[in-house]
Amino acid sequence: MPSILNDDLVVTMIRPASDDHVIRMSVHGDTVAAVGGQYAPRFLLSDDGLAFRAGRGPFAMPGGSLSGVMLREDDLWVCGHRGFLGRSTDRGRTWQRVDAGTAVHLWALAEDDAGNVWVSGDDGYLAVSTDGLTFRPVDAACTGKVTGSPLGILVPGDGRLSVCAVESSARGRASHRIRRLEVAPGAEFNHATVTPAGTLLVIGEGGAVYRSADGGARFERVRVPTELMLTAVDCFSDGRVVVVGAQGLILVSRDDGRSFTRLDQYVSADTFWHCARYGEAMLVCGSEGFVLRLAAPGTAKPASTAPPPEVRDGVYVTPQLRAMLYPRRGGIATAVRPVPAVEEAWAALRRALWAADLAWMEHRGKRSGIWELAASHDADRRRLGERILDPGPRTGTLAQDAALVSLTLQQYSTFVAFYRERIHERLADFLVASAGLAEAARRCLVGLDDELPYVDVGPFGRLRELLATAGDAAYAEARTVILQTCESEAEHASGHDRRRADLRWATTFMLPLGPQSGEEERRAHDRALKYVGDFGNSPVHACGLAAGDLATLERYRKAGGKVGHEFFAPFPRVYLASLLEAAGSGAAPVLARMKPADPFDDDPFYNGVWCRLLAHLDHDDALEALYRQREAGGRSLTWGTAGLVLAARIDRDRVLRLAERKRDARLAALVERECALSPEPPAAPYDQEDPAVDLVTEPAGYTPPPARHPRILRADAVCHPIGPEAVWREEEAEHAQSQGVHEEAVTWDGVPLTRCDEEQLDAFVAHREKWAIPTTVPDLVLAPRRLHDRLMALGFGDDDRWSLRALPLVLHRHGVSHLPVLLAALEHPQSPETALEAAQPFGDVSIVPAVSRAFAGRKHKVLARSWILRHPRHAAAGALALRAGGQEGGEASRVLRYLDAQGHRPVILEFAGAMGVAEEIVRLLEEDPLAAPKAKRPVLPAFAAARGLPPLVAADGSAVPSGEVTELLVRLAFSNADEVHPGVLAARARYTPASRAALVWALLQAWLADGAPPKAAWCMQAVGFLGDDECARKLTALARRWPGEGAGARAQAALDALRNIGTDAALVHLDLLAEKSRFPAFKAAAKERIHAVAYARGLSADELADRLVPSLGLDEDGADVLDTGSRSFRVVFDHTLMPVLREETGAVLAELPRPGRTDDKALAKAAKAKLTALRKDARSSASLHLARMERAMCAGRRIPAGVFTDRFARHPWMTHLARRLVWGAFDGGELRATFRVAEDSTLADAGDELFTLPERSSVGILHPLEFPGGALPAWSEIFADYEILQPFPQLGRATYTPDEEERGGDPIARLHGRKVPYPALRGLESRGWVRWYDASVQMAKPIGPRVRAVLYTDPGWHASDTVDSVEPQTVRGIGLRGAGTFGELSPVAFSELVYDLHTLPGE
């Protein structure tokens, strides 16, 4: 609707509001090109500056919007989201993407006088192209939109304006000429122009307008009546200047920019983004999708003598209202397009589907949705895809057509997200043309198998049109079918409340109340109204508004609370418009109170729709509501006045009467001026023809999914190639077996792969081969082994992280034959952590490239290091092969240096010698990296001066010069935990252990005293490289407390230092930290490192712990003697592994007696100190060893006979533990004998006869349930006779056997309701329980592969809770995850599970 200001300019809306933005325009001759969009690009063309049509936008754009456009003859450029830059040489029929060299949002394009193309964007981006193919950046700090001008390209920036041009050098090469004009420091500019008089104008944020009449030598600020953002400026041919900006702002200057007045337009209150001169008019575009035309009044048509609109029940029936209506039978007539022939309808539907698929692929970077249907594992989906690909219309069955409907109604992650309205309209046409109106409605209801779009109605909108204009007989037939189908489908949708509701909404929408409706329609409407509620929180749908009457509106209003955007949906049709038809002017009092609420109370679009509806009601309440908006001022002034102007165009006198009542002469004058001009043309749905749909005549070609074919690294250059191997640790195997995928993760025609017969399996693989579909991990989990070779030949797809969790299961089942799937996962950038974890048991040179990349980084270095230590021979061979092939030399060399630092030089040189490169590799390992050309020599901190540290002593006893010490310190500073300078490695042998340990410990203390600066953190690792056992002990004491002092990173660095010291004593301390630290993250880090050491030695963590038990300085018999002069005491150990004293008489003492007169005081003091130290050392780890051995008994862990003899029966300290237990000798899994360790460390059987342990047997601590018949009482009697106390319950251990009720139920029913303190629950962790993270944290016990018992307690706790914040937990029961019933557990597993819980204390 136009408006006038001082008989100077008329503002006319030439493109109505839409749900998109129009951001920029370009004019060339009579043609206008406009671009914008919101979630997808929008491209418009006009040949007369009045009527716009949708053009075929660039499909290659990755979503988002277009923001810039430049038109010159047939050459068309656009730019926008994510650095997109596109060019068309045929006015938009075809497009070519041009590389802009950036991913920032591009805002504007411009052409200079020489024809060069300039583009600007975010982050100061500015570039120019002289050939239309390549763009070169220009350093001009652009903050806005570039513009061509007689002076050159105008580039707005922060506080300045740059004028840019391209000029050629003497050699013919293009260069940039930039003239920087200082405008106003601190200002941010968006646009600039040169007026016909040659004046420079720059506009920007906060109402900034600056003017220069001397070509930019001096600028002055122009005062304007706003502080809003200004976005664009352009000039009429007569010199008038137009500036546009936020909140519908239009400023006009008639004096070459010296002063501006505001144009009071009443079309839009949203942001105007651009203005462009078109002949003698000015076009303005903005956020609501409007295009406005500013022109002199003389160019507007005089008022016509059109007849007044029809008034129906107090509603003015204008063309604009008809365009907003969903028609009713017997209601206001609207134009309804006839149904095309079936062939035409099918072709139109296919084009829309293809266009949507192409947009899905190119805008979202997805694969073709249609071809995915055709290549699906499901027969119904394949048939649907084949149908869409078939050019001939197929008359489908009910199920087939319903499947087509269901496809178009999918809401998420679907290609039909594009052109959805076109697809729904054309789908309805095809179904009606092929099956008839009644059957089309039935198919759409059956196909509504999920839910309606949030505010739209899908194909039901077109069906309602056709039902409204159908003959009585056809309508009656369709109504019967619709009602019957709704009832039957609603019954099948039991439990799916959303679908049942949407079926009711779709039914009442197609059969609305109205002049010709009956009881059937009323009942259908009432059934739907049961679902009315708050939008977003109930299964209500806005389409019910267009099906009912005023009572319906009142019910929605009462249930909804506030007026949201749903009441003014969808667009361009509006449900409320159809309700006005039914309710008449009686709706005015209700509608007048329906101003959009927060957050839409200031939204121009929804407020504009509301005001347009009010303007069509012949009721004072409607006019009063509009007037209140006008009087409110601000943005409300715009849409309130626009509504009043529209009301005046419909019926001038009623608005004049309102103006008279309000004594508002300005409103009366405005009405008179508006009504003197011709009314705007009838509104119609915009952009009905969409070349993006109808110019697509063929679907995209099929492209197979991307497949990874892993690269196999050949080590043939190594004369004796090393083959792959797999060595699984017990816990790794258990973890692998605990993984899996759901049975229905892979199906063929709806049948899980595990249940398919041979014919189905062969069809499945043949289908995958036909479509070149790559293999995934679930395929290999579920398919039989005979199919794996064919599947793996297809390559491997990108598994998601959940599917990759089953990779260890595949590898454990099939071993090295399935290394290709592991190698493919290692190459996948999204899965390195999961793949590196799965790779740990496997040694293969092809794994080395991925490991070397990970080792060179930080994120996955730990896993890479673990693999290298575990497979040093494969790591060495693979790294050498990489170097030999000239691939990843730097990363491979790093691996070789690390292996050398870990003592694997012989392995490296073995392979290097076979390759004939031994000398080269020795030079690599020994070369000084500090001597490299670009090496940065570390600067030592002041505290690391050699003169302030203990002296170094050479291995030959000579003194070491201070310069050599300084050089060693520099090399230490250059090193880190994984990359050690060769000179540091050599220092281990060059200097005495004591002197180098003293040096690095003093260095560490100096670093700590200086505040432990991070740049000098190498001092910590220096202790690891050159420290000794005493350093390890002292460092452990520090590391134990650091996490509690906020020094977690320092504490973890200490763990690496302990690992690098590497002695048994250092590893004992590392193991203690892994078991006893009270800081979870630190404890986990220590465990990770001790596990890595164990794996490197081919052991489990428990097996390593068996071998790291200290001897405590005891003699071979496991004892020591303390001498006080006149007396001596033999040190022995009790059942807790703590030292006690035995007198010569045999009496046992807990403490050393006070020295007597005959005792030597010095000897007595030394004896006491020795006992104290021994007790301290024993106390630090005794409880850990006891808990570890009790876990071994419960888990049935077996120990090789040789390890048992060396580390238990004859170990000075552990023999005291071994003597207090009954052991079993096993051959394979079968128990062959039971025995104990006697006082003299020999073995004895139950008859107290000497027992010889077979060399190849294994040994385990027998659980009471494992004793053969009669052996348990016999051994109990022997231990009682010898008065042997056991370190933990074994012979007298309570055991539990499930009764019939407990086998299938809850075995701890008697504990239900017991309140257990939180610390007691956490204490279960020492017995192998772990925290289980569900809705709340619970405790769970792993029992075997994929089986966990979960203890349910109330209320549970959060992972971040502490001892102080968790209330006592009430036991509610126990359940199994991964197993059927408790009766299926092994006897020992069941007994120990119940035993653990019966030890829990209650409050």
Automatic annotation (TrEMBL):
Domain DUF4132 per the UniProt entry, residue ranges: 1146-1329
Top-level division of the source organism's lineage: Bacteria
Region forming the signal peptide: none
InterPro entries: DUF4132, WD40/YVTN_repeat-like_dom_sf
Protein name in UniProt: DUF4132 domain-containing protein
